[in-house]
Amino acid sequence: QVHLVESGGGVVQPGGSLRLSCAASGFTFSTYGMHWVRQAPGKGLEWVATVLYDGNNKYYADSVKGRSTISRDNSKNTLYLEMNSLRAEDAALYYCAKDSNKYAWGIDYWGQGTLVTVSS
Amino acid sequence: DVVMTQSPLSLPVTLGQPVSISCRSSQSLVYSDGNTYLDWLQQRPGQSPRRLIYKVSNRDSGVPDRFSGSGSGTDFTLKISRVEAEDVGVYYCMQLTHWPLTFGGGTKVEIK
Fold first, then answer.
1. Do A44 and B105 touch (CB under 8 A)?
2. Contacts (Cβ under 8 Å, ≥6 apart) of B23
3. Tell me: the pLDDT tens digits for B90-110?
């Protein structure tokens, strides 16, 4: 079955950087779009970024554009999110999520999330 | 950006009673391929979200048939025919027709 395991979260100072990873298994990773979605404590869901199946097409929320890079290594079945110039408002549980298609047609599986805390 | 407006924000319900959650989008969610990429997600307390319904009205595998989705254009509804205790949680609509992808603010379903 599909497994998505996020890692890389932690406590980072404002202005710092972090790289989140998501190890995928149970499906042919290279044929599906992948997403990052975040949820601040006690808040709703916020889409962060999407990369289509081949890694060539990437989309970002305005809130992270220019500060974050989504990427994937299809040889390692791994999704990444590099985040720079972190702000207090970036603190959240970051979910890795699988699309149901090679594009972005709908999220059918979610990981358990990795927590990012931004604090001095 | 497409704004997704859910109502109500909170829904105290009696076990066995029906529930209806509304989701309205600020623009049509019909994509150029004719599909409407509107999904419904459930997030139980302490858990990751789980998709219930995709493309307006298609139930995901394993989702009880008491859940149903309907609507078109800009107006969508999630219905639970008879609420069970395991249905407690927050429900979100999500659109994937337009970039950026956007979620509704959520509707919290709780038992009276």
1. yes
2. B4, B5, B6, B38, B40, B71, B75, B76, B77, B78, B93, B104
3. 999 999 999 999 999 999 999
